[in-house]
Write the structure tokens for this entry.
Amino acid sequence: MALKKIRLEMARTPKFPEGNPRCGYEFTAPLDEAGKLDAVNWAATKSQCSVHRFSDDADDEHGVLLHHRGKWVFSYRAGEEDDEPIFRFDSHVFRPGEYVSVTEHDGKTYPFRIVSVHPVLAAKAH
């Protein structure tokens, strides 16, 4: 298991026919050897599983990646009212060029393209 930093950018939509690299998410998550989210290792590393939501028309948000009730969500505050569910997140392979769907605060589901997946480097002990 390895923690990865994954960047998602808005894919093509009617509003953004070419996509929008200024709207998306960067998050840290454990991936298994096949590149899928690893729920077992998430439990051991959940304090490191953060998310940064960025957009050119809203303030940035910082939160966490949660796995509960069999679903993955991005959460920004305590409680579930702001959670952003990710459609079939557990079945996706995270590699550049693949697509995922996120239901945002407005209740609409948008497509995002995976643009990068990088190892999270552990801090060196001094």
